[in-house]
Amino acid sequence: MPRKVSIQMIADQLGLSKYAVSRALSGKSGVSQATRERVLEFAKTLGYGLPSQKAPSPAPDAASSFVLICMNPSNRVDPFYWQRVLDGLISGCSERGWPHVIVSQPVSFPAVSHLSPQEIIAPHLDWNSCLGLIVMGAYPYAALQLMARTGKPLVLLDHNEPLLDFDSVNHANIEAGIIIAHHLLAAQKCRSLIFLGDDGRSASFAERRIGVRTAMERYGGPEAKLQEWELAYEEKEWLTATAERFVQLAPEQRPDAWICANDDIAMQWMQQLQRMGVAVPEQTRVTGIDNVEAAAHTSPRLTTVNLSKEALGSRAIEALWRRIERPGTPMERLHLSATLIPRDSA
């Protein structure tokens, strides 16, 4: 290719995914005929070296069908949690011989009445080949309604929508909150706790907070106290704002331990405490939830709750397979259990 034209360059110019361009150029199914012709014409214009006279695949069959994975854009840059969930999804697809297509859609879709749901969600795909949808993370009710109107089997991953009858696969977030709080109350003899979270970011954070409250009621006793600090996790300033709030506490108001809604918050907050001269775990304990890989390499190593992220993804593929094979069966809401990982920070 004299002008070094790449598939990614074509995808960027046409506003398509690299996957769609690759399928179109190679003559494989998974894209509409209109998209294929558009890609081939543009590639020819740029002088891209096309394969030698390879005819497009015929009408899609079971072997050429694909799973559409809809990923909330805010989760794309999270290597600790969502990338591992995605790895589980891809692995699950591979085990069943299912190709997959990933679209990172906005959390709300434009209300364009003259377009079909398929044209709004992914106009470049051949929806006749779509086996079903896996929806990763939180989407608004209206967006999920639109996805349901495609008529394809749909599984929610790490999200619930009680008003829509979808299968869902989630972590046992309430159980995780109970486990970590129980550990601090019973094993560490802590009597004052602060929960750091952001309920507006995800349902899982809110559920973990509920679990902590439940543990306080069950195991805390009359002397145990819980404070709940809400932070703006999506904003970079949350760490500074939390530190400013902390320094305003009188010594007797400072907690025995912190429960953070996820490991990322916990690791950043533990470092901030250390910068302020607060020793962990000697003066206060810090815990997280998720068990990301980096949690085992902090100093001190972070006590957390393990949530099987790859298993969450692969289990969602199993749920989709069940829905395809047994479409009339009752909907399922599955929760994968959580396990305490005690380390040095608490």
Task: Report on the architecture of this protein.
The longest helix is centred in the middle third of the chain and has 18 residues, at 203-220. The chain folds into three domains: 1-58, 434 Repressor (Amino-terminal Domain); 61-170 and 309-335, Response regulator (Rossmann fold); 173-306, Rossmann fold (3-Layer(aba) Sandwich). The model is unreliable at 52-63 (pLDDT under 50). The protein has eleven helices and twelve strands. It has 346 residues and is α/β, with parallel strands linked by helices. The strands form three sheets. A six-stranded parallel beta sheet has the order 2-1-3-4-5-11, with helices on one face.
Observed structural traits:
six-stranded parallel sheet, four-stranded parallel sheet, transcription regulation, 434 Repressor (Amino-terminal Domain), transcription cis-regulatory region binding, Rossmann fold, 346 residues, DNA-binding transcription factor activity, single chain, repressor, 11 helices, alpha/beta
